[in-house]
Amino acid sequence: MRMKAILVPTEHHASMASALDTALLLARKFDSCIEGFPLRPGVADLVAMDPDSGLTMVAVKENDAELVRHTEEVFRVFMDQHQVPQRSGDGPTTLSWAWHSDTPSGHDYVGSYGRVFDMIVLARPGPEWQSPSMVTLESALFESGRPVLIAPPAAPRSLATNVLIAWNCSTEQATTTAYAMPLLRLAERVTIATVEGATVAGPSGEQMAATLWINGIKAEPITLKPGKRSAGETLLNKADEFGCDLIIKGAYTQSRLRQMIFGGTTRHILANARLPVLMAH
Q1: Which of 215, 27, 18, 249 minimizes the C-alpha distance to 117?
Q2: Global pTM?
Q3: How many CB atoms lie within 10 A of CB 181?
């Protein structure tokens, strides 16, 4: 299995450069096609943002069209600067790009269209939990059935050469690790990190390492004592200490409502990771 089809919902904001850089690092590993499309709020959302602005429906649609033009320009300029050719024809592909312009507005489209891709790449959500970028991420995680690669604020220099698997024995983590197998096979170093006291009932990190070894992947299982730190802090600190360039983390072992109220490992990593994070649910 290889990650040949990569989807990058494209917006016009500062974090987009890192998302595109992260997607390109992934695409170079598998000679993939990176497909972009314009991600923008639905018409109703634009009106709701400022209901007293007096915007007419014509003005809203003109603004939407301008957003589409800007996002396509961002995507095309990036590909030109990195000498990535446009995809032509059908069938197997080499490193290339494509642009999907005929798309509806609204963040829900990420989840539905993403179902036919091997990976969805998004910029890291902003600090507001209910920000549009978080809505986009949750659509990708919960509606696409596909893995999501979340780019850090600053573009990474490498991807998946030194990987930390945040093993908590959960179903979500097992699913995410399975999706990551193509990357794990190419990695130079794989660490399976379990935070003491932050697991559910399930197989140990040592058992996961044994299964990876059967698949030809050498992984070192370690157990971390958090002390006064949270599980999320403990994992990020270890990833930084080891010089990792990817964390593999199952999303939302607890309910999303519980995460929003009490915090949680997923939320902390989303808010603070300075390296790419691969997530799935």
Answers
A1: 27
A2: 0.90
A3: 12
Mean pLDDT of 154-158: 96
Residues 179 and 252 grouped into a single domain? yes
In a domain, 157, yes or no: no
- 3-class secondary-structure state, position 180: coil
Query: Would you state the structure tokens that stand for residue 114, as one six-digit string?
Result: 């993403």
User: What is the pLDDT, as a whole number, of residue 123?
Assistant: 93
Percent of the residues in the chain that have a pLDDT greater than 90, as a whole number:
69
User: What's the token pair of residue 173?
Assistant: 């983590």
Mean pLDDT over the full length of the chain: 88
- Whether 97 and 33 have beta carbons less than 8 Å apart is answered as yes
Q: What are phi and psi of 240, to 5 degrees?
A: -70, -45
Residue 258 has pLDDT above 50, yes or no: no
- Work out the pLDDT band at 261, boundaries 50, 70, 90: very low
Residue written as token pair 């990876």: 212
Report how many domains make up the chain.
2
State pLDDT tens for residues 9-22: 998 888 899 999 99
Q: Which of 109, 129, 151 is the last residue of a domain?
A: 151
pLDDT band at 265 (very low <50, low <70, confident <90, very high): confident
Which of 123, 151, 179 is a domain's end point? 151
Question: DSSP readout, 41-71?
Answer: --HHHHHHH-TTS---HHHHHHHHHHHHHHH
Q: Which long-range contacts (CB under 8 A, 24 or more apart) does 125-130 make?
A: 125/150, 125/270, 125/271, 127/271, 129/260, 129/267
Contacts of 88 (CB under 8 A, 6+ apart): 96
Report which secondary-structure segment, H or E, holds 245.
none
134 and 194 both lie in a single domain: no
Strands 162-166 and 246-250, bridge-based pairing:
parallel
Element (H, E) at 258: helix 256-262
Smallest Cα–Cα separation from 148: which of 249, 2, 253, 259? Answer: 249
